[in-house]
Amino acid sequence: MKTIRYLLSFIGLMCIAQSTWALGFSSSNPETLMHFIQNNNPLVYLSAFFGLGLLLAFTPCVLPMVPILSGIIVGQRSLSSARAWRLSLAYVIGMAVTYAVAGMLAAYLGNTLQTLMQRPLIIGAFSGLFVVMALTMLGLFELRVPAFLNGRLTPVNQNNRSFLSVALMGVMSTLIVSPCVTAPLIGVLTYIGQNGQVLKGGLILFIMALGMGMPLLLVGAGYGSFLPKTGPWMVKIKQFFGILMLGIAIWMLSRVVPEPIVNVLWALLLVLASFYLGLFQTKSSLGERAMQALGLLALIGSGAMLYESQSTFLKSPTIVEATQAPFIKVDTLQAIEEHLTRAKQENKPVFLEFYATWCSDCQGMETKVFNQPEVIKAMSGLVNIKVNISTDTPEARKIKKRFAIYGLPEMIFFDAKGKEQSQLTAAGYLDKSQLLALLHRAV
């Protein structure tokens, strides 16, 4: 019966998300959503943004949080459906409050907390935290609160401490694990920035984040319902989530660590996974041999990752250069204005892409979109400028203020007369077909 209830809940959430999609929110243009807020009553746009949150729940905005929340729940000493759901709710509320507060501050101050939190030192520290959590789940050691601190915390209810710590993990995960930039988010931030409706924009972001968290609530409640309460399976489950936690740590480091090193780390993780799958142990049962087969596949995958890492080190620079998009790279507002003026004099349209080295979507477009021959050909008719605003410097803040940049990547187009084509502005990851459509309209 519980399984049917969860299935019906999931179907209901998908129906809401599909209804939102049907309203026309597939656009990557933030202005579409800003106008939607202005032209509809609160019930309509809050419901729509809740549905948008559901759509975002199945993107890299939220998916990395699933193993984090799952690991937290599985790591509890006592587990029930009610407790698992309450822990999930604490995590989701922490996430939603962070989206609202960070969004209001971003629009009001012209900068984002996520930008500040994407510095290599902070990413490295948080990755280290996940490594420590993973090692405890793998059973290598146990974290204990120091005796002097435990004595001070004794008067505080243990359950309240657990819920507070989970909520704080939701806050940190939102700021560091999920630096997600989408058209809905940029649309709301633009609305706040242009209209000064800080509280209203914060409410919209809170509702959208609750929509993003709904699948997490189902995941949390499901653990308490579907998994057996005791038994040796718990050790295997903890080890599984320990491996996933290490994967999250490597994925985070990939924003600030060179790709060949990241490949080596993935290869080492696969070797570790093969060990915990029992590849190097003597097994007799059919299930154990199946796990060993998975371990063998992991070991083979490790070899493939090492080979890929070696190939990247030895790759010819001339080959890499030949597949790069024709960008002019700048990092100052003066340089941007000079190129815009020159393009206007030469009667050429302009394509501006704003990016940061820590932005995962920016990296994705660099390696999967901008190196495609069709895209490079389509860009040949424009002056293409790539603007680096990776660090929070006064110059970067001037650029963000001049072009109203609230998230990355963001793409802005100017026509041959130097007028901004706001209808072509796009935020977040664009695949090849989406970018080609914009480039063809911009020429």
Report strand order across the widest sheet.
1-3-2-4-5
Count all strands and give the number. 5
Strand content: under 5%
Share in helix: 55-70%
Domain count = 2
Kindly name the structural category: mainly alpha
Task: Compute the separation of the termini in Å.
Answer: 57 Å
Q: Specify the biggest β-sheet.
A: 5 strands, mixed
Instruction: List the uncertain runs.
Output: 16-24, 152-157, 316-322
Q: What number is the mean pLDDT? A: 77
Report the C-alpha radius of gyration, rounded. 24 Å
Total helix count? 20
Note the run of SSEs as H and E: HHHHHHHHHHHHHHHEHEHHEHEEH
Shape: globular
InterPro entries: Cyt_c_assmbl_TM_dom, Thioredoxin-like_fold, Thioredoxin-like_sf, Thioredoxin_domain
GO molecular function: protein-disulfide reductase [NAD(P)H] activity
Membrane topology: Multi-pass membrane protein
Subcellular location: Cell membrane
